[in-house]
Amino acid sequence: MTITTIYVCTNCKAAEDTSPERAGARLMTALEGVIAISGAKVRLEGVECLSVCKRPCTVAFSAPGKWTYVYGDFAPDSAPETILEGAALYAATDDGLIPWKQRPDALKKGVIARLPPSVSSPKASEITP
Ligand code: FES
């Protein structure tokens, strides 16, 4: 079983945000807390931007050999449990494709993009000029 990485944009800023701390940074902190309590086996990594700045807060699920999914529209204070639930569903798949009916509503509504699994070190002959 591969380890799922949850990337969190720590730079996301919510429109209605009055906190001096960015919404994305608050989401990161909240996720750290939920993961510590749950003991979930995930890797959490903060990133500066996932290029989905108009749909804060944004996260991505990724793992070797699996599709990467990018999601947005998460509330920083209430979304960590849902994100962790989604990450567990993602981890349980072989390819990263969570069946639609199993996805929490926030993942159905918040899906932004999916990217195919990366290919490790293609041979020169496999690269199109
Ligand atoms: S600032 Fe969060 S996706 Fe760009």
Features:
five-stranded mixed sheet; Glutaredoxin; globular; alpha+beta; 129 residues; binds FE2/S2 (inorganic) cluster; single chain
Report on this model:
This protein has 129 residues and is of the alpha+beta class. It has a single domain (4-118), classed as Glutaredoxin (3-Layer(aba) Sandwich). It is built from 3 helices and 5 strands, in the order βαβββααβ. The protein has helices at 23-38, 80-91, 105-110; strands at residues 4-9, 42-47, 59-62, 68-71, 111-115. A 5-stranded mixed β-sheet has the order 2-1-3-4-5. Strand 1, helix 1 and strand 2 (42-47) form a beta-alpha-beta unit. The mean pLDDT is 93. Bound molecules: FE2/S2 (inorganic) cluster. FE2/S2 (inorganic) cluster binds at residues 9, 11-12, 24, 49-53, 56, 58.
Order of helices and strands: EHEEEHHE
Distance between the termini: 35 Å
Radius of gyration: 15 Å
Count the domains. Answer: 1
- The H-level CATH homologous superfamily, spelled out, is Glutaredoxin
Beta percentage is: 15-25%
How many beta-strand segments?
Answer: 5
**Strand line-up in the sheet with most strands:** 2-1-3-4-5
Q: Judging by the overall fold, what is the CATH architecture?
A: 3-Layer(aba) Sandwich
CATH topology: Glutaredoxin
- Major sheet description: 5 strands, mixed
Level-1 CATH class name: Alpha Beta
Mean pLDDT: 93
Low-pLDDT runs: none
Q: Helicity level, as a percent range? A: 25-40%
Q: What sort of overall outline do the alpha carbons produce when their principal axes are compared?
A: globular
Query: How many helical stretches?
Result: 3
Q: Which structural class best describes the helix and strand composition?
A: alpha+beta
